[in-house]
Specification:
Helix content is about 60%, strand content about 15%. The chain has 15 helices and 14 strands. Helix 12 (about 450-465) runs parallel beside helix 13 (about 485-500). This is histidine kinase. Its EC number is 2.7.13.3. Keywords: ATP-binding, Kinase, Membrane, Nucleotide-binding, Transferase, Transmembrane, Transmembrane helix.
Length: about 600
């Protein structure tokens, strides 16, 4: 929305010649004059010299103006201004319309016929030449101060815009620029310095500049108070009023009346105050400054200036054009305060966000330090385990050498082969302990029949000692897995089943969609649901056998290795009915 308003504002200077041509064609060239009389009384002859008086009309220009002097039954024409009169035809080259008057002694009457915008009344003042010069100098001083303040605020806003690239500052510049153009026009400076030979355009310019002020003001309000998000209905109502402005201009061009445009301004005023009050209620940054500026605009421009120009209501001070200057200056200062307040809040939020980021960075640094400390401790423990594994390799090698001294007969060869396989498996485990987690175990195709045969050979002595039957169901299945990892998992499960079973342990394979399951069945005491999670923790043994053989690590190792390898682990058991441990290995896609 703000970007669209900015584009429209930038188009206004290019449209001015077209608008001027349309206004010159559509504006009524003639119309009834409004007449007023100003009785004056001068001193006796010789006490008042000719040219000692200046008649100030209190307006910057007029569509038509006739001034005559009535004295002792005689009338004398003093001034005629038509819609085609340029600035050079003025009796006094000043921004505000004025003329010198030579008054005869005694009682005279100045009769003025005029036609202004929307039948605006004149602000007639008859001053001495010295008094007029003093008034003119004071007025130029005030206008210069006003211009300097507006230019300073515009420059500061431009610097903020180029530094922050925030559209609010550019819309503020556009609003202040249009206000300056409007105040310069109603103050007579536009006709005096910019287009002295274009009286027709000079009559239309104040209305167009006022429309530009409203347009920029609306865009600034919507952007500053975030009405697009916070109050979409209020924003639409404002846009509807703006959409009706062209119709008001059309009525002005055809009839010369400002009533429709004034009515739209009256409708816009409560919406402006409602927007400010809503923003204050919602805690929008700068809303209080905006509301103060809007109140000044309503008081000095919409009410005082509108009543003086359109309704002819006499105002304190006598100069009706002083009120829009005060109103717009106070509003611009308040809007600058609103922008400064928004910047203050934004900086405070940025500082808070920066502090939070610093806190997060410090916490991250502490977490990294803790992680490094944990890794160092884990590395130290890994080195200790590796050293222990290295030391264990020595007695294992001694056992292997001792086997060579056994008698070379059939029974001993079978026992030696079994012991060799057990020592090979033990050596693999020690090697894995030494290597740590530096490389993942090799995943190769495995023939489960061979794995089952080694398992049966390795656990048959334990089954015989417990007088239990160990049965491995024949299979031809093959899987993709690490032999070492799968062997460690099944060794722990079969060892536990033989330790806690009563009479038999059965191991077999089931084929499922998408995976292959290896099941270990036993007829032991079973595991209750409440005990199942407890047994998966390290150093916990089942069946209340805390002092039994083992360390309480078997199920924990099975769970950890299964999770690392992507295997599924399922435990089905009922107290007194035995247990079933299932390892599910996903099938590789063909």
């Amino acid at each position: 929305m703000a970007a669209g308003m900015l584009r429209l504002l930038t188009m206004i200077p290019g449209l001015l010649p077209l608008v001027f041509a349309a206004a010159a064609i559509a504006s009524p060239a003639t119309g009834p004059l409004r007449w007023t009389a100003l009785p004056v009384e001068t001193a006796a002859a010789g006490e008042a010299a000719a040219g000692d008086f200046v008649l100030s009309f209190g307006v910057a220009d007029a569509e038509a103006l006739i001034v005559r002097l009535d004295h002792d039954g005689e009338s004398r024409l003093l001034l005629v201004q038509t819609p085609d009169s340029g600035f050079a035809t003025r009796p006094i080259a000043a921004p505000m319309l004025a003329m010198p008057v030579q008054l005869p002694p005694g009682i005279s009457t100045l009769v003025i016929g005029y036609r202004l915008h929307a039948d605006t009344p004149l602000q007639l003042r008859l001053r001495t030449a010295a008094d007029y010069d003093h008034w003119q100098a004071t007025r130029h001083l005030l206008d210069g101060v006003l211009l300097g303040l507006f230019v300073a605020m515009i420059l500061v806003a431009l610097l903020h815009f180029f530094a922050l690239r925030s559209p609010e500052y550019l819309l503020y510049v556009a609003t202040c620029g249009m206000v300056l153009a409007f105040l310069a026009q109603i103050g007579g400076y536009g006709f005096m310095y910019l287009w002295p030979e274009a009286p027709g355009w000079n009559q239309v310019a104040p209305i167009l500049f006022m429309g530009g002020v409203q347009l920029a003001h609306l865009a600034f309000t919507i952007r500053l108070l975030d009405l697009r998000r916070r109050a979409p209905l209020l924003r639409r109502a404002m846009l509807l009023i703006v959409a009706a402005v062209p119709a008001g201009f059309a009525v002005f061009f055809l009839t010369g009346t400002l009533a429709p445009l004034f009515a739209l301004s009256v409708l816009y005023t409560p919406l402006l105050l409602i927007a400010g009050l809503g923003a204050v209620r919602d805690g929008v940054a700068g809303a209080r400054f905006f509301l103060a500026g809007a109140a000044a605009l309503v008081l000095f421009v919409n009410l005082a200036f509108g009543a003086g120009v359109v309704g002819g209501v006499p105002l304190p001070g006598g100069d009706v054009f002083l009120y829009p200057k005060l109103g717009y200056l106070i509003e611009a200062a308040c809007f600058a305060g609103a922008l400064a307040d928004r910047l203050r809040v934004a900086r405070a939020q940025a500082e808070t966000a920066l502090r939070l980021r610093l806190i997060d960075a410090e916490e991250l640094a502490r977490a990294e330090a803790g992680k490094y400390q944990a890794l160092r401790i884990a590395h130290d423990r890994q080195l200790q385990l590796a050293a222990s594994g290295h030391d264990l390799a020595q007695p294992l090698q001694s056992i292997r050498l001792a086997l060579t001294a056994m008698r070379d007969d059939e029974d001993n060869r079978r026992i030696r082969a079994h012991i060799d396989r057990a020592l090979d498996l033990t050596r693999l485990m020690i090697d894995e302990l030494i290597q740590g987690a530096r490389r993942a175990p090799a995943v190769l195709p495995l023939d489960l029949a061979e794995v089952f045969e080694d398992l049966a050979e390795r656990h048959r002595p334990q089954a015989a000692a417990r007088r239990m039957r160990l049965r491995m169901v024949p299979t031809t299945a093959r899987v993709e897995a690490s032999q070492l990892v799968l062997t460690r998992i099944l060794d722990n499960l079969i060892g536990n089943a033989l330790r806690y079973g009563r009479s038999r342990v059965v191991a077999g394979v089931r084929h499922r969609p998408g995976f292959l399951s290896i099941e270990i069945h036993d007829d032991g005491p079973g595991i209750s649901p409440a005990e199942r999670d407890r047994l998966l923790a390290p150093f916990v043994q089942g069946g209340g056998q805390a002092g039994a053989e083992g360390f309480g690590l078997g199920l924990h190792i099975v769970q950890r290795l299964s999770a690392q390898s992507g295997f599924g682990l399922d435990i089905r058991a009922r107290p007194g009915r035995g247990s079933v441990f299932t390892i599910s290995i996903p099938r590789k896609p063909r």
